[in-house]
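Worked example 3. Consider a protein that binds fe (ii) ion.
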Amino acid sequence: MVRAEGATAAATGSLELPADHPGFSDPDYRARRAAIAEVGRRHEPGQPIADVEYTAEEDEVWRIVSAELGRKHRRYAAAAYLDGARAVTLPTDRVPQLREVDARVHGLTGFHIEPVPGLVPTRQFYGALAGRTFLSTQYIRHHSVPFYTPEPDIVHEIVGHANMLGNPVFADLYEAAGHASVRAATDEALERFSKVFWFTLEFGVVWEDGELKAYGAGLLSSYGEIEEFRSAEIRPWDLDQMGTLDYDITRYQPVLFAAPSFGAMVEDLGAWFRAT
Ligand SMILES: [Fe+2]
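Given these inputs, the predicted complex is written out as structure tokens:
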């Protein structure tokens, strides 16, 4: 599972698919992407979020993926994530509308979920978090490969991030991250920040009762990687090291950093964001 906001940002709203994208040769899929992007493009911040009419095929992808991820979360997800997911209670039989996810999450933690047509520049994505707003794509992965996506789609955004944002502890961490990104004056500072975000809120793991559990949205929305993360090289919690370590968004992460406990992660990462 890749997460583009941690990498060099793509152009705002770019609808171009790379040649190796599963939907590249499917004109119907490309047309759906364009139609769904248009809903995000028309959205005005603060205004009601228009619904996307998802097709039966798209709902079926959501059904398959959310059922499998739900099973894996019960085994591999950190307790704080499960608390958030229980509170948000996403539908399992259809793609949720951002309108309803936004209402649910906002009622729980004051965080808003807002649609965007596609990937947004790094500073825009992180900067929105400072205003307790998560910018979300709405398209869904190609139906031929329900357990794979080369880019963040609505499964990643909502099953990964929105479920986290249903927990006030995570919501405050995301907001602190947003403020840190705004204070990152140079590209180097923003890159260091992005790497720490990547190795924590996207791919973080934590020790709970002697077991390694995942709390990062990238791991928790990846059907394959969620079962493989314990095979990665697990390094001790080290924010300085995270901030300088390169990562490859196109493969399972070979190195992960384990927090000694959820409380220690929240305290240390929050302090780092506030001091950055
Ligand atoms: Fe993400």
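Take a moment to read the result before moving on. The CA atoms of residues 8 and 79 lie 32 Å apart. The first helix runs from residue 27 to 42.
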